[in-house]
Amino acid sequence: MTTQAFLQVIASGLLLGLIYALIAVGLSLIFGLMDVVNFAHGEFLMLAMYATFGLVLATTLDPVVLMPLVVALMFVLGVSVYAGIIRYAMRAKANPGMVQIFATFGLALLIQGLAQYFFTPDYRNIANTWLGGKTLNLGGVFLPWPQIFGGAVSLAVFAGLYWLITRTDFGKALEATREDQGAVALVGIDRNRVFALGWGLGAALVGIAGAVLAIFYYIHPQVGGTFALIAYVTVALGGFGSIFGALVAGVIVGLVEALTTLILPASLKSVGVYSLYLLVLFVRPSGLFGRL
Amino acid sequence: MTQSSAAASSMSAFVASRRRQLITAFVVFALIALVPRLVTDVYMMNVLILTLLFAALSQSWNLLGGYCGQVSLGHALYFGIGAYATSILYVKFGITPWGGLLAGGIIAALIALALGYPCFRLKGHYFSIATIVIAEIGLLLFHNWDYAGAALGIQWPFTPDSWWTLQFARDKAPYFYFALGLFAVTWLVTFSIVESKWGYWWRAVKDSADAAESLGVTIFHSKMAAAAISAFFTAVGGGFYAAFVSYIDPDSVMHFRFSLLMALPAVLGGVGSLWGPAIGALILIPLAELTRSYLGGAGSGLDLVIYGGLIMIVSLTRPEGILSMIKPAVKREATA
């Protein structure tokens, strides 16, 4: 194979990996904050994609312009899910881990069912966008603009998150709450408020991913499942709760997936990622950057 | 009362309560065995067979997930292995499904042991996600395995009704009795193990993994035993399912939804309890089947709404499972 074709695979894998990282980071954030795995994360992504689709239909504006609105809606969704479900799941005295798993699984099925009922199982896509259909030719390596835009947004989001967590009061409250949930109450931080904002932020982050993805990917009620497992693998590979880990793991997953297609049939492209993930986990049971 | 006589009387109370549980179980099994005499509707019969099958599967899952606290979300792998082993041995080699059930069970148990070795080092969510991923790898491999029919799967030939080939086209009652038998066996296995030393170790692992870990290698062995027994019966259930539906493909036996369907009845009914999985299956399976046939036409999604909503509500309001509503002391009894 030519160098050019190889570079093409690497570049495509890198861009996809940045989007995987963006999808995964909200999941990792919530986990780091309160030890809860949201099994409805893929459905959050799917809702954000439909929200983008619906808003584009209603306003005929470009999806890029509508992103802030989608992200705001997702923030509200995240806070509501925390207030309506997670808060109660965390109070369970018996089998708390299982209650969280199955409460969020139940939510995932519910959202999927509602999406199927209201939007039908049909595949949709957003046509006629500014970015759609355009490709950048980089010395023989072709990169579609929507994916470049997605990669850029992902990097910007990670930079923003870094700033938010290290430089703002909310970030400090977030960090303090992850360190010691009991002690923060003593210094006057309302734990529930931090958790609610954390869920809002987590959902907003996957909302950004959904809005980006909606520009170049098909939208249907099952689309969450396609990306959710990759997101769980990304988070576990990077280490639950590690923001930086999600970025590195996302890029690794994207690259490995792209490289796997060079050796295995396309239908087995995930096998490379899954095997690598298991391999890493057996050496480092808490992921690459997880706290041991 | 002296200490030793107190111990003796609590021992005899324990034996009496065990005997009572056993008698109750036999009465329940006997009553269930009468059901085919009352139900003639083929559709209802199918729902009941699936209910018993998933009661058995969930009981098997409960050994590892409920008593041992290792929340596996990848049991579809073992279910699929059982279904494929039974189908391949029967369709390609003419070996009776009974042999296939046994072979599938043994293969699944060996795979569970091989996977348990690295996986039991993983804690909590890391363990659960690893099990999902391993099952997903299995699904992808079967999708691409030409010998096993790849995505097209394996069709069982049409043959006359016979216990030898486990094929009953006209009267579904034999399937019902097979499923009941499987459920009774898994119940009895659970019943006899949970009060043995393994059972105590499992609960020790579940209640405090770190403390149990300090007891070292015995804990690891007891976890491995739970995984192997759990996988064995899950695969037997998978093999039976293949004989029952007579056609399998990767998505119809190894899809993630089967992993959920095995865990959910136990969670809804009451994890780590003797009757929780059965009660959960009794509610969940008919509900899933009936909502699918009455509301799920053309993928309307309403069945998922009801199903998902119910799972959410029960797990939030009854974290100890539905069984705890009927018998509040259930949890205490298990850890006493």
From TrEMBL, chain A:
The keyword Transmembrane helix applies. Its main location: membrane. It comes from the Bacteria. It is a multi-pass membrane protein. The chain crosses the membrane at residues 6-32, 44-61, 67-89, 101-119, 145-165, 194-219, 225-255, 262-283. InterPro entries: ABC_transp_permease (IPR001851), BCAA_transport_permease (IPR052157). Keywords: Amino-acid transport, Cell membrane, Membrane, Transmembrane, Transmembrane helix, Transport. GO terms for molecular function: transmembrane transporter activity. It is found in: Cell membrane. One of its GO terms (biological process) is amino acid transport. One of its GO terms (cellular component) is plasma membrane. The keyword Chaperone does not apply. PANTHER family: AMINO ACID ABC TRANSPORTER PERMEASE PROTEIN, BRANCHED-CHAIN AMINO ACID TRANSPORT SYSTEM PERMEASE PROTEIN LIVH. Belongs to the binding-protein-dependent transport system permease family. LivHM subfamily. This is Branched-chain amino acid ABC transporter permease.
From TrEMBL, chain B:
It is a multi-pass membrane protein. The chain crosses the membrane at residues 21-39, 45-64, 76-95, 101-120, 175-194, 224-248, 260-288, 294-317. GO terms for cellular component: plasma membrane. Pfam families: BPD_transp_2. The keyword Transmembrane applies. Keywords: Cell membrane, Membrane, Transmembrane, Transmembrane helix. It is found in: Cell membrane. GO terms for molecular function: branched-chain amino acid transmembrane transporter activity. The keyword Cell membrane applies. PANTHER family: HIGH-AFFINITY BRANCHED-CHAIN AMINO ACID TRANSPORT PROTEIN BRAE, HIGH-AFFINITY BRANCHED-CHAIN AMINO ACID TRANSPORT SYSTEM PERMEASE. This is Branched-chain amino acid ABC transporter permease.
